[in-house]
């Protein structure tokens, strides 16, 4: 009798929304079609999430529960795409997790440095400034 091969299942979680108790079940059942992504931006409504409680070291914690783990710069789309390619190609009977370290408002310096930017409020005059900065970065021209 042949083995049923399921298509990859993707699941995204923020660092504060992790249900860490489910990690062991996914590895126990060898859910090798499960690819999770964790957005680690160190932000919550009241400031840095690491000031409240740290989930680190995430990479080692997932590995200890039997997951195939990778950690990448989540603001680098090429690195994220390569991590997903590697996760799909991994020859292990284990779930996969891609941990992405991200910076909120990346590419807009005056927004990146705001202390509380999880529920970022952008003033009307700031929108055009942010768009100009992003357009310049994508076109390769400095603002």
Descriptive tags:
single chain, 143 residues, alpha/beta, 4-stranded parallel beta sheet, disordered N terminus
Can you walk me through this structure?
With 143 residues, the chain is an alpha/beta fold. Helix content is 32%, strand content 17%. It contains five helices and four strands; from the N terminus they run βαβαβαβαα. It has helices at 23-28, 58-64, 77-89, 109-112, 124-139; strands spanning 9-14, 34-40, 68-73, 96-101. A four-stranded parallel β-sheet has the order 1-2-4-3, with helices on both faces. Helix 3 (77-89) links the parallel strand 3 (68-73) and strand 4 (96-101). The longest helix is centred in the last third of the chain and has 16 residues, at 124-139. The radius of gyration is 18 Å and the shape is flat. The chain starts with 8 loop residues before the first strand and ends with a helix.
Radius of gyration, Cα only, in angstroms? Answer: 18 Å
Distance between the termini: 62 Å
- What is the makeup of the main sheet? 4 strands, parallel
State the low-pLDDT regions, or none. Answer: 1-6
Bin the helical content: 25-40%
Count of individual helical segments: 5
Could you give the order of strands across the largest sheet?
A: 1-2-4-3
Tally of DSSP β-strands:
4
Global morphology: flat
Order of helices and strands: EHEHEHEHH
Structural class: alpha/beta
Mean pLDDT: 78
Strand composition percent = 15-25%
């Amino acid at each position: 009798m042949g083995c049923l091969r399921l298509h990859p299942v993707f699941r995204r979680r923020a660092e504060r929304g992790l249900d860490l108790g489910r990690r062991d079940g996914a590895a126990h059942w060898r859910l090798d079609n499960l690819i999770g992504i964790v957005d680690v931006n160190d932000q919550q409504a009241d400031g840095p999430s690491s000031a409240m409680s740290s989930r680190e070291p995430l990479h080692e914690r997932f590995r200890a529960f039997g997951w195939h783990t990778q950690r990448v710069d989540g603001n680098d789309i090429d690195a994220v795409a390569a991590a997903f390619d590697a996760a799909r190609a991994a020859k292990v009977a284990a779930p996969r997790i891609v941990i992405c370290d991200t910076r909120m408002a990346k590419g807009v310096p005056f927004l990146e440095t705001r202390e509380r930017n999880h529920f970022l409020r952008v003033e009307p005059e700031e929108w055009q400034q942010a768009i100009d900065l992003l357009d310049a970065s994508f076109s390769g021209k400095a603002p």
